[in-house]
Design a protein that fits this description.
With 248 residues, this protein is α/β, with parallel strands linked by helices. The protein has a single domain, classed as Rossmann fold (3-Layer(aba) Sandwich). Helices cover 34% and strands 17% of the residues. It has a 7-stranded parallel β-sheet, covered by helices on one side. A 3-stranded antiparallel β-sheet has the order 4-8-7. Helix 1 packs across helix 2. The radius of gyration is 17 Å and the shape is globular. Bound molecules: fructose -6-phosphate.
């Protein structure tokens, strides 16, 4: 697996942001949309900050950018401060010139019976846009990518899932206690992620060192969904030294 290790997350995030900007510009010059799969959480925050800076200082335009976020809690109101809609607005969308109609984030307000058709339509929309040029990923301590928790199938599509207890514990600070963290989420599947033309998984800090070791060097298994990435030829791991510290 191609693994690149940077001294710290800021240098790594800078490199990833430049890579994203190159894709946007290249597609722009072809008169085509750049279709980006985006993640939330702490990991990509600096990438988004760098992209905002490039927009402000270098005129990087997002007019041709179409985005699909990996996941959203369920249920979740978009105007709730813990929603991934709020996260994306705050960290990226409110600060760039993206066309709002090009933003897609799974809808946490659906009635239960509407979820399955909505998820199919989400997949279809990605296809209609020409597929994901790049999918950005973080990794959870359960080995989840998106919210594909242990047990997820390698060919899974966008669907409603149950969050692992550890995932809910890790989110408890944002919600003021684990009991307030939703038990479910809507997430793109492993199969959805695999269809992206390029995948970049980022991880920073010692907290991620042991799961990164498993993801990169461990046996491929549904009990650590990120190990499925070992089967992809389009994936790059971008790490800081701390996250890479247990790799042999
Ligand atoms: C977020 C997502 C999750 C996170 C993962 C790591 O959209 O899909 O897989 O990437 O839980 O979260 P952080 O970056 O907060 O450590």
């Amino acid at each position: 697996l191609p693994v690149t290790v940077y001294p710290d997350e800021f240098e790594a995030a800078d490199k990833v942001a430049k890579y994203v900007a190159d894709i946007i510009r290249k597609k722009q010059s072809l008169g085509k949309p750049a279709v980006l799969g985006l993640a939330t959480g702490a990991t990509p925050v600096d990438v988004y900050a760098r992209l905002v800076k490039m927009h402000r200082e270098e005129g990087l335009s997002f007019k041709n950018v179409v985005t699909f976020n990996l996941d959203e809690y369920y249920p979740m109101q978009p105007d709730s401060k813990q929603s991934y809609v709020a996260f994306m607005d705050e960290n990226l969308f409110n600060h760039i010139d993206i066309d709002r109609k090009n933003i897609h984030i799974p809808d946490g307000t659906l009635a239960p019976e509407d979820i399955a058709p909505y998820c199919l339509a989400y997949e279809q929309k990605i296809e209609e846009m020409g597929g994901l040029d790049l999918q950005i990923l973080g990794i959870g301590r359960t080995g989840h990518i998106g919210f594909n928790e242990p047990g997820s199938a390698p060919n899974s599509g966008t669907r409603l899932v149950t969050l692992d207890d550890l995932t809910r514990r890790d989110a408890s600070r944002d919600f003021g206690g684990k009991e307030n963290v939703p038990t479910k989420a809507i997430t793109m599947g492993i199969g959805t992620i695999f269809k992206a033309r390029e995948i970049i998984l980022m991880a920073w800090s010692r907290k991620k060192a042991s799961i990164i070791k498993k993801a990169v060097e461990g046996e491929i298994s549904g009990s650590v969904p990120a190990t499925y990435l070992q089967l992809s030829e389009n994936v790059k791991f971008v790490l800081d030294e701390d996250a890479a510290s247990e790799l042999t």
